[in-house]
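Incident review: delayed structure delivery

Summary: a single-chain prediction request sat in the queue longer than the usual turnaround. Root cause was a stuck worker, restarted by the on-call engineer. No data loss occurred. The affected request and its eventual output are reproduced below so the record is complete for anyone auditing the incident later.

Affected input:
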Amino acid sequence: MREFLQRHRAAILAFFGLTLPLFLLFVHGRHPRKTTVIEVALMEITGPVQEAASRALSGLSDLWNGYVALTDVHDENERLKEDVRQLTEKADRVRQLELENAELRKMLDFKKQRRELVTVGAHVIGKDVSPYTRVLRIALDVGQDAHILEGMPVINADGLVGRIHRVSSSFAEVMLVVDARSTVNVKVAGKGVVGTVTGTSSQSNYDARMSYLTRAEPLAQGDLLVTSGHDKVFPPDLRVGYIQSIEERQRGVEYELQVTPAVNFSDLELVYVVTDVVSEPVEGAGTAAPQGGHR
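Output delivered after worker restart:
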């Protein structure tokens, strides 16, 4: 018996410490009387035990409530993060659609102004880029099946992009106007100066140069260069570029000026391939819309 009491001494003391005051309070409530010295002593002894037990239970309750609350907050944060991600994706898609729509409207407005051009719309599906992120050439999602031939001009609403260099049944490669193999006969808009724009194939910049013999009027930085049509390759009055600097460099009997192209080759997404030029717009002729699904 003694061994049992010693082994379970702590449990027995805790039991009596918790139950005895309750019993005394019960008895005292049934038979009101003055609190005895013994009852006071027992309350002094068992009070700390009850207080500790109450604090422990309160701590466990707070811990549990805190855990549940934190779990709910974590779940809510995850839901909010997912909502933000979805909203960001939707905003990006809307922005992309807005940019595409703006480009399409720009292209359609250009087409209305140049109704004499019979064109086929195409998507840019590939770009060869230099180590300096300069676009060297582009690939299109149209080819011989769409009556595309080598040498045909490629344009967009900003101006001349280049010409078809290679073509297969379904795809085509474009030589840009800044390619060193490209030459375009041009004139300075409103100034009666004609010349030739040749690319430089710079790996780091979109540069070209204009060569000319004489000039009727002084040239200025920012003067617009357009196709003259004299080479019978490019239709007249397509924007080619702008005079970058009026510092002339003489090569033999010719003078040279640096030219900035009119087209931003880095942002090319949609282009027209000019398949024919007609003196009067033909009913039903015009632009074939870019085919969907090719990006």
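Verification: The chain has two domains: 1-89, 103-288.
Action items: add queue-age alerting; document worker restart procedure.
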